[in-house]
Amino acid sequence: xxxxxxxxxxxxxxxxxxxxxxxxxxxxxxxxxxxxxxxxxxxxxxxxxxxxxxxxxxxxxxxxxxxxxxxxxxxxxxxxxxxxxxxxxxxxxxxxxxxxxxxxxxxxxxxxxxxxxxxxxxxxxxxxxxxxxxxxxxxxxxxxxxxxxxxxxxxxxxxxxxxxxxxxxxxxxxxxxxxxxxxxxxxxxxxxxxxxxxxxxxxxxxxxxxxxxxxxxxxxxxxxxxxxxxxxxxxxxxxxxxxxxxxxxxxxxxxxxxxxxxxxxxxxxxxxxxxxxxxxxxxxxxxx
Length: 288
Known about the structure:
It is built from eleven helices and no strands. The chain has helices at 2-23, 27-56, 62-80, 87-100, 110-115, 117-129, 132-141, 147-172, 188-208, 220-248, 264-285. By secondary structure, the chain is an all-alpha fold. Helices cover 74% and strands 0% of the residues. It is globular. The chain has one domain.
């Protein structure tokens, strides 16, 4: 019953909220989308740092994590306004801070301070990239023509994938679960249902939004099939990858910020990994 309520809330609250942000707040290069992405990335970085701390006891301050998590999507946002900034330079700055800050004098005994240096640098580099580096591709979408509709279709591809995968798994997955140790509850039927949903959304987008999805190298429907299929695969892999992180830390959810769903990472894992895939495919297949 909780899962049914969760899916219901996604479609009565989550989808309308996405529509408002993407279609009704396009001002300043879709600044609302960019700010939302930056905040989500920063919170997701906090949750990831907590998962990593359980494994390597890395010493990262909350403010450092927030800055590192927001760094790459923030820089991409500034680049969208034409400022002379770049993601590689931002990553160099973030990594340099992690490296140099390890030699700053501290009240912590040196034996304990330097024991955590390797874990600190590894964890800091990771939270800088995940989910921020992946979500930065969502920020890049705001620079595309018809950006609001492009982002809306991307979001629907991922949300429908998750929801229909759950429905197919409930209805037809009883005898084909457990194929992946990282998520035993997932079923073959669920994966098929999720991919069907993603492909269907992409094909519908081609028919309903022909001015947005003008195929360049293929006919519209084959192009939509490619976009939906590979974006859907990326969404599924993103969910499974985050499940592996949680299992490594022996945690059921990445956090508790979203009632009934867990943490921010639990909600954006599929969105994060599918963002660069969707952007690249849309740019190649449809962008004029």
